[in-house]
Structure to design on (338 residues):
């Protein structure tokens, strides 16, 4: 899963950010965009292989926090090539969100994440429909997944899924709340514009999920980590 | 069951909650006033009853309450938190209704 040039590496990372969870489409049930998937370059050099295979497991805490960045200016400075490679190597396989149509069973599974957390169709109170109504495509709220997706040129579900995957697979903060039996998970993610691979912003992806039910209640892009 | 007390206790996992009246509270985080919250006992009870099924579906038995009403308030407390976390400009003015959380400063409801 290696790209030949530094620029290509930046693009690769940008694609990973989107393609890792390509074209999630709970409403329409659309299949993933093949162009958004990570491609395989057959002309991988030994050096690149070493970066992808050897260094992927040796990230510092700081690098871990910025694994999603793909800012080409950083790459030109010789700092982010590894990150791009690591991002490519560590990205999850592309997944399409299962569809949630009218009258669907709220228990229907949309997507399963790490920590056994499950995004279900749900309704206005939790799950996919709640995220969609409150933070997916609400024009009254400019600090939502839709606004982030507009920055990167993606579908809001793609950006939401990337954030949820990042927060649940390797959270920077996980904050249990015993009174309502939930835990808030969060992680800083970088927003990479697909058209040119530039980092155009960042946000803290927060996911709240039940401790015993394992159901995702909500997710949203916040200005801070989960607050202890 | 004291639903207001249960609801406030849930919010206190994250916030400092100060009562300012029989049905009114101030919600603080790190010394910052995040929201004015109107949450009457009677309305919380009606909300919990109306959304008990959703509470059970989403969270299961919270505090071993098989009715789902405690879980429903758990969902409501999450909605308060996400509304504050994604808000642009604090403090908010929030009101609990039978249907959910109403944001009085923009009339947006979650």
């Amino acid at each position: 899963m290696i790209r030949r040039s530094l620029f290509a590496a930046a693009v690769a990372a940008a694609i990973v950010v989107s393609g890792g969870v390509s074209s999630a489409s709970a409403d329409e049930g659309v299949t993933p965009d093949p162009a958004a998937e990570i491609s395989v370059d057959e002309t991988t050099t030994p050096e690149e292989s070493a970066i992808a295979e050897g260094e992927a497991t040796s990230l510092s805490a700081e690098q871990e926090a910025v694994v999603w960045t793909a800012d080409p200016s950083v790459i030109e400075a010789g700092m982010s090539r590894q990150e791009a490679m690591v991002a490519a190597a560590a990205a999850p396989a592309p997944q399409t969100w299962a569809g949630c149509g009218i009258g669907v069973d709220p228990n229907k599974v949309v997507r399963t994440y790490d920590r056994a957390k499950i995004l279900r169709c749900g309704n206005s109170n939790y799950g996919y429909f709640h995220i969609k109504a409150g933070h997916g495509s609400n024009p009254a709220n400019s600090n939502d997944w839709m606004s982030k997706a507009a920055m990167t040129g993606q579908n809001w579900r793609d950006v939401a899924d990337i954030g949820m995957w990042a927060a649940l697979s390797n959270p920077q903060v996980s904050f249990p709340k015993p009174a309502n039996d939930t835990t808030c998970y969060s992680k800083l993610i970088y927003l990479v514009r697909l058209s040119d691979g530039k980092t155009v912003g960042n946000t803290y992806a927060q996911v709240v999920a039940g401790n015993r039910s394992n159901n995702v209640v909500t997710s949203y892009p916040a200005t801070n980590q989960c607050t202890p | 069951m004291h639903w207001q007390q249960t609801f406030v206790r849930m919010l206190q996992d994250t916030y400092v909650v100060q009562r300012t009246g029989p049905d009114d509270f101030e919600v603080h985080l790190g010394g910052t006033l995040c929201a004015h919250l109107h949450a009457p006992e009677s309305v919380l009870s009606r909300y919990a009853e109306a959304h008990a099924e959703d509470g059970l579906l989403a969270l299961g038995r919270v505090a071993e309450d098989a009715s789902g009403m405690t879980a429903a308030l758990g969902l409501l407390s999450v909605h308060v938190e996400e509304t504050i976390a994604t808000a642009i400009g604090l403090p908010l003015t929030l009101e609990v209704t039978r249907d959910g959380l109403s944001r009085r400063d923009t009339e947006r409801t979650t």
In short: The interface with chain A takes residues 6, 9-10, 12-14, 29-30, 51, 54-55, 57-63, 71, 73-75, 77-79, 81-82, 85-88, 100, 106, 108, 110 of chain B (CB under 8 Å). The mean pLDDT of chain B is 93.
